[in-house]
């Protein structure tokens, strides 16, 4: 992913095509639902059969009313209808995209997803009122405005859409039509066009201060530059399960929304082009308590051949030191290029060089140590010296703490080191928010 | 020019200052409290509970009561009971919560009539002054709506925050103008465009969600060059002065005088 081809232009076009395909896959994603009418609303015999229907991931459950209601119409008691759904007794919040609800509530994906539909007894104390498609539409527009403000410091890109454009945009969401969705945004100012083939590290950062945002972004758009958001709109949904199960089917279903923590937290995009913001960074910022303090040395996963015996210690970090002593004897564990190493700051005076002047120099240089005793200094970015004077370029020294959970976005379990800008462009919801569903075994 | 927004830390500070001021000056009124919430970047939010608001007699209420009369005649046959219910106040709770996306405070509220029924959209509409009721009509989905409370996860009424930063920024500009002329006295409400002494009446723009007429602009102390630093102390009070009327939250004017 990136413009690595020699022919830069083709590389960019290629990237754009591939990025669009990825987004298209996400938009076409759908959840098969098996919809059962709640027994209290069945007035005929035999009871109506459950309805099998495909629900777009980037859509909202009440929008399925027109497809679901006719199936059960004949059996409903007299009165007026307001559609709502529950899963295992939990009323479903209609303003959360269907795919997100599924990823969050079904720890182990259930196919088809068994839902109960109701047309009466709307739980007004738990769900905000839904007066048909308009409610859903306006909730979507407000969320889009919020996303626009988070990214560019202004709601103008949404507010400036004409009535027709807003209406067309909504229709494209209802139908899951990505092309017309993108088309409308390509004309918006400032550009909300996620399909722009200019990656973010080429454009200058959008200020997320409203006053200067508009003219700055207008200029950028006319120059054809990729507009880099100041912040990314994200929503975090956190579900705690009792134990770290290998198989999530054993976890008990959520029976109340109070069991979940969910929040909207925008993430600042670094202003410099070199820093790559990853999913891990976002999680460290918002949910640092879900990272454990015990951490192993993490080997570069892409190269299996470099996996050494200590990698089995990943699951049992406390024994790391022992493993290397037993298996490698006197040899110390040596991280290789590209590895992420955990280092801990050294207390002053930990060094054992004789001469006091040299000792001081050493001390000021040697300021970190990994669990196996290798010493590091923080000099130039990414360049580190060991005690032996060897130079390991590209060695990322990060606090690679273990994340005690699983992160799903659009149903995909992601590697935490994925660049967040790719996630934002390809995996966002219909309102441009990134919805992160986290299943963690850290108790609240 | 300051953009009218507030950082999470500033909101926390401003809330504590606001609470101190209100609770100290207005001992006879309901007191504000701070609710701790570690998942908020401001670490918590403000709560004002048990505010009594005079009940508004709405045709709807009479209608619903008369419907009940058919079913429960023995309870509602007494006319005197009907009158009592309508004169008893409804009780409202207000939460001032930091909005992570817009970086401004947002007001949430929920209320119940004396008979225990929740206050609904129509009740609110009937109770607002006409220019605000008009706002509710014209901006059905973007002014005052029922949204999910960010921490209690139940439906609460919320005033949309999109226009807040613009109004706060505008007010700070007005203050600067006043400052250059010395301390301001409470000005007469004037029409827009009448010379330099303009009221800070925000112009209608796509960003502003509602019109407000300010009857009193608080005078400001000698401000340091860092506007925001000084403004932080007064932010919530100023914000509440234009947000309060839309949610029927009475804001005592003497609080502004005590800022001098």
TrEMBL record, chain A:
The keyword Transport applies. Residues 232-438 form the Autophagy protein ATG5 UblB domain. The keyword Plastid does not apply. Its main location: cytoplasm. Residues 217-228 have a biased composition (Basic and acidic residues). Residues 26-119 form the Autophagy protein ATG5 UblA domain. Belongs to the ATG5 family. Conjugated with ATG12. This is Autophagy protein 5.
UniProtKB/TrEMBL annotation, chain B:
One of its GO terms (molecular function) is Atg12 conjugating enzyme activity. Keywords: Autophagy, Transferase, Ubl conjugation pathway. Belongs to the ATG10 family. The keyword Thylakoid does not apply. One of its GO terms (biological process) is autophagosome assembly. InterPro entries: Atg3/Atg10. One of its GO terms (cellular component) is cytosol. Residues 177-207 are annotated as: Disordered. Residues 188-199 have a biased composition (Basic and acidic residues). This is Ubiquitin-like-conjugating enzyme ATG10. It holds the Pfam family Autophagy_act_C.
